[in-house]
Amino acid sequence: MAFKQVTSPHAHSAQSTSKVMQLVIWATVPGILALTWQFGWGSLINVVIASVTALICEAIVVKMRGRSVAFYLSDYSALVTALLLALSLPPLAPWWIIVVGTVFSIVVAKQLYGGLGYNPFNPAMVGYVVLLISFPIQMTTWVAPLALLPEGISHPGLVESLQIVFGSINPVDGVTGATPLDMFKHSSGLLVDQVYEREPLFNLAMFAGAGWEWVNIAFLAGGLILLSNRIFTWHGPLGMLGALALMSVIFYDSGSSTSPGTPMMHLFSGASMFGAFFILTDPVSSAVSNRGRLIYGALIGVLVYIIRAWGNYPDAVAFAVLIANFAAPFIDNYTLPRTYGHTDRRRATEKEEG
Amino acid sequence: MCAEACPASLLPQQLFWYAQAQDHERLEAHNLFDCIECGACSYVCPSNIPLVQYYRAAKGEIRHAQDEKVKADHARERFEFHKERIEQAEREKEEKRAARREAALKAKANPPAADKTDGASGSKAEAKPSSSAADIIAAAQARAAAKQASPEDQQAKLERTIAATEQRLIVAEEKLAEAIASDSDKQAVFSAAVENTRQKLQQSKTKLAELTA
User: Does residue A28 sit in the same domain as residue A111?
Assistant: First the structure.
């Protein structure tokens, strides 16, 4: 008789990796719905293409590594990566963009580093950054939100969207448009109030840019579902959103013409909520302690704002997350929690320093 | 999840990582030995990693390494002490050898030197040990004198000695006569003994005369 395991615990909670991943997938549903409502079928098509590609890639690589394909596919982690990448890509992007990004995410950023649990970087964000650097035009062409479509034009239907994605027809003029962050990047010379008055993107919106605010609210709702299910702690998201809000308040510049935008706009457009609740909460590539996650999140928030305000890219969640992933082990070394019964925190590097 | 579950506020993920890497220093910096092995981290682990098993193995490894280190230190200390001791013994021997060699050289060099000059230095060098020997003799004589209780005892003792010596003289003369009669080889020996005994008798008699006078 062989004991499989002789140490405690002799029971396990039902919270397996696949359950956690499924919950994450369900939590993106509000976001997917909001994206589809505001930007048409494009996001859904992205999700389908990315998911299929991810599953195929994962199966091939796992097979090549001589592991159990069924076991690794059933943990849903490849699907989550595909989903997160698909939701961050612009709707109606060409199909090969999605495929290239997904292949890079799964094969290079995840499996070549050792698979789930060993990747130092968030795979979805690696894929996104590769695409953004390699194909800037396709990656920065966003569909205009519902409220901004010209009279008589609606988002392309499902069949038409598929044709656009697979390159057989070109999208109708006016279907694409600037994002709120683009708008502020290129609106120098105008006061914030003037931008809000003149641009339909803002004057048709409640507080942060038509369409985008709904998407962000939906992702916020999904994130809160995950938070209430204790999939992650509040430290990372709060750190990021807090730092982003603080930075945008400090540098708001009372709405002058050089202002990078209002705090509300920074919190509720672009990938702010998506990043805060779905990207930086990745347990593998983030910091491990609560204090560490707070710092990690704050670092991302600061970086997002810096790149948005003074960098070359309109949005920056992917870059900020990757940079913070680099810093995560460093943060971990200096944020060990105080162990129960000890009076002081220790540092992981104390031997090397001493 | 595991970090939130840990009742000792440890970081199970990091501990697992360093346990796999057998990085003992990091494990101790992360307070591995504060782990009470409750299994809460392993219970909540979505990947069902047997974390506690890793920690127990790592603890065992660290303890083993510490024991080995203590042993090694002890052995090294003993070896170093042993080496030191051997070296010291060797040094002492060498010193003794050198001293002896020097003394021999001196002894070889000094007597001819003394003869060549005036012999004063040589006799001086010899006087020292002889003076100490004279001291010892004087002390012994003093002790002997102290033992001699009174002149009467001394006189009685001398008289007894004279009587015994006279007896021995008679025996010796008889033996000598016998030897002369039988023309033995021992004739000379016996005559020497007779002469010797006679001298002793004479000495004792003069001593007695001195004492009584």
Answer: yes
Domains contained in chain A, number: 2
Chain B residues touching A7 at Cβ < 8 A: 37, 39, 42, 50, 52-53, 56
Range of the domain at B210: 149-213
Picking from A8, A20, A351, the nearest residue to B39 by CB comes out as A8
How many angstroms separate the first and last alpha carbons of chain B?
Answer: 125
Residue A63 sits in the same domain as residue A146: yes
User: Does the residue A135 lie in any domain?
Assistant: yes
CB atoms within 10 A of CB A89: 25
Is residue A69 within 8 Å of residue A13, measured between CB atoms? no
Dihedral sign (CA A7, A8, A9, A11): positive
CA of A186 to nearest chain B CA: how many angstroms apart? 43
* Chain segment A277-306, per-residue pLDDT in tens: 999 998 889 998 899 999 999 999 999 999
Query: Does the bond joining A9 to the residue before it have cis omega, within 30 degrees of 0?
Result: yes
Adjacent-strand bridge partners of A176: A143
Q: Are the beta carbons of A348 and B8 separated by less than 8 Å?
A: no
Give residue A199's domain range: 178-336
Residues A134 and A243 in one domain: no
B-chain residue closest to A285, CA distance: B13
Is residue A207 included in any domain, yes or no? yes
Domain boundary among A128, A162, A177: A177
Q: What is the mean pLDDT of each run of 10 residues along chain B (213 residues)?
A: 89 91 89 90 88 92 94 96 96 95 89 54 50 82 75 82 89 86 80 87 86 75
pLDDT at B116 (0 to 100): 52
Asked if the Cβ–Cβ distance from A288 to B46 is below 8 Å, we say no
**Is residue A341 included in any domain, yes or no?**
no
Q: Is A45 helix (H, G, I), strand (E, B) or coil?
A: helix
Mutate one of B45, B56, B62 to test the A interface: name it (highest A CB count within 10 A).
B45
Look at residue A293 and tell me if it is in a domain.
yes
Cβ neighbours around A117 below 10 Å, total: 16
The answer to whether residue B101 sits within a structural domain is: no
Point out the domain boundary residue: B48, B74, B100: B74
What is the per-residue pLDDT for A132? Answer: 92
Closest among B68, B5, B61, B67 to B36, alpha carbons compared: B5
Per-residue pLDDT tens for A158-175? Answer: 888 888 888 877 776 667
Residues A304 and A190 in one domain: yes
Section A117-127 average pLDDT: 92
On whether any CB of chain A is under 8 Å from the CB of B45, the answer is yes
Here the tokens at position B102 are 């020097």
- Two tokens at B183? 């023309």
Mutate to test the interface with B, among A3, A5, A7, A24 (most CBs of B within 10 A): A7
